[in-house]
Amino acid sequence: GPDDQVLDTSSMFDQLHVDRQALVGAVHRTLGAGRSVSLDDVLVDSPLEHGLAELVAYFSLHESQLALDFDDTERSHVAWVDDDEHVERRADLPRVTFSRPEPAGQGSEP
Fold first, then answer.
1. What one-character-per-residue DSSP string does 43-104 give?
2. Any domain includes 104
3. Number of structural domains the chain divides into
4. Domain carrying residue 52
5. Residue 8 lies in a domain
6. pTM for this prediction
7. pLDDT 10s per residue in the chain (110 long)?
């Protein structure tokens, strides 16, 4: 009916102002010359500054230089302090690993 509340996630994300390029940079800094790195390790080097919004943004970092893998058999426990309420929040989530894509084979499109 007309009283139904529609959750507009796009406006939620618009308000968050998470700098996705900064997150990509954080992943690459932790990755260094390695092949892969866990989100846990990235967050040790670059702790969450925007809480859940930033955490969710990491999950959607689809860019050509990073492949994402979610492993439901391993769990990560992430904690951050909620800026508004000054309380610690925790999330239990699948282990997330960022890795460099395998080099393309000869003759394939770049």
1. HHHS--SSHHHHHHHHHT--BTTBEEEEEEEEEEEEEEEETTTTEEEEEEEEEEEEEPPPPP
2. no
3. 1
4. 16-99
5. no
6. 0.74
7. 556 666 555 555 555 678 889 999 999 999 999 999 999 999 999 999 888 889 989 988 877 788 999 999 999 999 988 877 788 999 999 999 999 887 666 554 55
